[in-house]
């Protein structure tokens, strides 16, 4: 199971990005994961990404409900930071040259 990152909205929730969440992002946005630029993401795409990361633990969520939770309990900056942490947990840190074993 992929690691998750806790985000506090109406209650503590876990953002987690396994294969099903990634497929859901592609379905909703119509974009491949590799084509999404998380440094320049639209609000619609941000909402889809957050929804996909949360719906594993709450099947009653919808993108609209997630938007309401963000509006009521958080802010875009905090959500974007938690999203970055969750993607790092899912995919790991990129390696720098010279970090490979034996170098």
Please give a structural write-up.
This protein has 103 residues and is mainly alpha-helical. The protein has one domain (4-90). Helices cover 49% and strands 10% of the residues. A hairpin with a 3-residue loop joins strand 1 (4-8) and strand 2. Helix 1 packs antiparallel against helix 2, helix 2 (43-54) packs across helix 3 and helix 2 packs across helix 4. Mean pLDDT is 88; it is low at 95-103.
Summarize the structure.
This protein has helices at residues 19-29, 43-54, 63-73, 76-91; strands spanning 4-8, 12-16. With 103 residues, the chain is mainly alpha-helical.
Give the helix proportion (percent range): 40-55%
The run of helices and strands is EEHHHH
Shape: globular
Largest sheet: 2 strands, antiparallel
Rg over alpha carbons: 14 Å
Distance between the termini: 31 Å
Please give the number of β-strands. 2
Structural class: mainly alpha
Our count of helices gives 4
Number of domains: 1
- Average residue-wise pLDDT: 88
Beta percentage is 5-15%
Poorly predicted tracts of residues: 95-103
């Amino acid at each position: 199971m992929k690691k998750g990152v806790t985000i506090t909205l109406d209650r503590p929730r876990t953002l987690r990005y396994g294969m099903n969440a990634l497929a859901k992002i592609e379905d909703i946005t119509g974009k491949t994961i590799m084509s999404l630029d998380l440094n320049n993401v639209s609000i619609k795409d941000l909402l889809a990404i957050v929804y996909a990361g949360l719906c594993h633990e709450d099947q009653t969520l919808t993108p609209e409900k997630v938007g309401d939770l963000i509006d009521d309990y958080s802010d875009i900056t905090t959500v974007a930071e938690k999203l970055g942490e969750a993607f790092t947990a899912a995919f790991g840190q990129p390696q720098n040259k010279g970090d490979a074993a034996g170098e």
